[in-house]
Amino acid sequence: MTDSAVKELFGEGHLAHAPSDHPAVPCAKVGVVLANLGTPDATDYWSMRRYLNEFLSDKRVVDYASWKWQPLLQLVILTKRPFSSGRAYKSIWNNEQNESPLLTITRAQTQKMAERLKALYGGSVEVDFCMRYGNPSTESVLTRMKEKGCERIVFFPLYPQYGSPTTATANDQAFRTLMKMKWQPYIRTVPAYFEHPAYIQALTNSVQEAYSGLKTRPSKLVASYHGVPERYLREGDPYYCQCQKTTRLLRETLGFSKEEVDTAFQSQFGPEQWVGPQTVDHVAELAKQGHKHIAILSPAFSSDCVETLEEIKEEIHDSFMEAGGETFSYIPCLNDRDDHIDALLAVVNNELSGWL
Predict the structure, then answer these.
(1) Parallel, antiparallel, or unpaired for β 293-297 and 220-226?
(2) Could you tell me where the beta strands, DSSP code E, fall in the chain?
(3) Angstrom distance (rounded) from CA 191 to CA 171
(4) Residues 6 or more apart in contact with residue 114 via CB below 8 angstroms
(5) Which residues contact 51 (CB under 8 A, 6 or more apart)?
(6) What pLDDT, in 10s, does the model give residues 255-279?
(7) Residues 6+ apart with CB under 8 A from 222
(8) How far apart are CA 104 and CA 56, in angstroms?
(9) Which residues contact 53 (CB under 8 A, 6 or more apart)?
(10) Which residues lie below 8 Å from residue 230, measured CB to CB, with a gap of 6+?
(11) Which residues neighbour 354 within 8 Å (Cβ) at sequence distance 6 or greater?
């Protein structure tokens, strides 16, 4: 839709019949906001502490009673963990742009999405991105979108599989922002796309391209997802089941046998029983079983981040090699690959139905 068509449809800023002294109102638009997990502003102690405090104080992430959790968090965890987390982030930091890879990649995804939507709809769509934790904050971005005239907003948490600590908390933050607005924009939240054909095809393409460049074909492909406590599954969170289905669809599209592809879960912390197997232990067991050449990818992450670039490529890699492994091939997240943007665009266009 062209800018002139938008003006014809909506009117020039909705002011056609307003008095001359009426405050200026921007022409009505539709907004698309890509929402990712978040990033610290820097790797120093205080930057990491602010980020971790916001992240670990979220009841969607750690749902223990505040009287029990907050003293432990403030007095113990946040005195030590900013140092170790800071070292992890420093090892992967984008020094050229002085930001985390997650921020760099999410910005690139947003720019490509904006280009695709502009080609389809002209200037009637505004595209931006926000972070659940850190900057740019959800509140600042949604507020800016509204100020630009976005009366309708598609809010897109970039998590293929729905999870309470990911998708739900991103939506929560968007709704908290709306609660502060006198005039709320209409908003649509994007559902999980764990089985969307275009997403599965993009994953398939990434694996096929990686395998074509390897001298030795891996005997195992490990799909490693971020873990959650088993209790979440019992309480109705569909994340674990959606992860399993993503792996199955990927395997079937690749034409691999069941014996060639495993599902595992990483990033466990705390005393609870988590869904498994744990990736760091599973890859070591694979090496001991004779699987000397494996490949690993992370279908739950839309962008490479500390959990993939540091945890998988360093900690999990070392676990496999120390157990006798020989070739550990990490397949990058889909990031801003064109086929990934195509998949995200297909999801967005479905949610724009009836609005444009």
Answers:
(1) parallel
(2) 29-39, 125-134, 150-157, 186-189, 220-226, 261-266, 293-297, 327-330
(3) 11
(4) 127
(5) 38, 39, 40, 41, 133, 134
(6) 999 999 999 999 988 788 999 999 9
(7) 261, 262, 263, 264, 279, 282, 283, 286, 294, 295, 296, 297
(8) 23
(9) 73, 74, 78
(10) 272, 273, 274, 275
(11) none
Residue 269: the pLDDT is 83
Report the residue count for the chain.
356
Instruction: CATH 3.40.50.1400 in the chain: give the residue spans.
Output: 197-330
> For the segment 199-230, what is each residue's pLDDT rounded down to a tens digit?
999 999 999 999 999 999 999 999 999 999 99
pLDDT tens digits, residue range 134-158?
Answer: 999 999 999 999 999 999 999 999 9
Task: Identify the band that residue 21 occupies on the pLDDT scale cut at 50, 70 and 90.
Answer: low
Closest CA to 306 of 96, 57, 43: 43
| pTM, two decimal places | 0.90
CA distance 345 to 113: 7
Q: Does domain 197-330 have CATH number 1.25.40.20?
A: no
In sign, the C-alpha dihedral spanning 193, 195, 197, 200 is positive
CA atoms of 353 and 159, how far apart (whole Å) = 21
